């Protein structure tokens, strides 16, 4: 009788252990932020000393989809303004972007590459002139992503931008290549796919 009682107590434990061993292991919520099928939206900005003028700000908006775990493809928009007093220029650009999150941890490094097609407008007192045609630039950005919650992350990044521009005075034109660097701080928000 005592043996039957032991069997009755052990049988449910064995069944539960077998069922739980067949289930997928539970992962920490932060590690699911970069799963395939998720969407991520990012806003970044920064300020530094300008190259042509004294002040330079930039703001960047990204939207992308994780086509594989940790690999996001999307579009990026970049606004840049450089000025001193009332003189300066502003640039508005957009283009494709690829973003790779290196780890799945709460503090995770990343690298990002985008290619921008840009319009640049020069301003000075009484004069506003838009440069002809579309300008181009490539932006390489390593950074660090810090999880504030499973959906919301803070970002610190450092951008290296390479520009190719055609400058014209109305009579002649010449190509100009420029290099810019800009530190940025941002926030990213992840919309997770529904899990069955």
UniProtKB/TrEMBL annotation:
Keywords: Signal. The keyword Signal applies. Residues 1-19 form the signal peptide. The keyword Signal applies. It comes from the Bacteria. This is Outer membrane protein beta-barrel domain-containing protein. It comes from Fibrisoma montanum.
């Amino acid at each position: 009788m005592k043996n039957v009682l032991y069997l009755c107590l052990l049988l449910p434990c064995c069944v539960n252990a077998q069922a739980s061993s067949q289930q997928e292991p539970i992962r920490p919520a932060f590690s699911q932020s970069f799963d395939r099928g998720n969407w991520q939206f990012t806003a970044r900005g920064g300020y530094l000393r300008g190259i042509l003028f004294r002040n330079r700000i930039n703001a960047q908006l990204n939207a992308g989809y994780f086509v594989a775990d940790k690999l996001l493809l999307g579009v990026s928009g970049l606004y840049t303004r450089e000025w001193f007093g009332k003189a300066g220029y502003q640039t508005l650009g957009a283009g494709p972007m690829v973003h790779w999150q290196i780890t799945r941890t709460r503090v995770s490094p990343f690298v990002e590459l985008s290619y921008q097609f840009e319009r640049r407008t020069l301003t000075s007192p009484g004069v506003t002139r838009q440069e002809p045609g579309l300008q181009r630039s490539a932006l390489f950005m390593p950074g660090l992503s810090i999880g504030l919650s499973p959906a919301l992350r803070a970002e610190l990044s450092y951008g290296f931008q390479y520009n190719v521009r055609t400058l014209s005075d109305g009579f002649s034109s010449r190509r100009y290549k420029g290099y810019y660097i800009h530190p940025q701080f941002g926030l990213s928000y992840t919309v997770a796919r529904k899990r069955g």
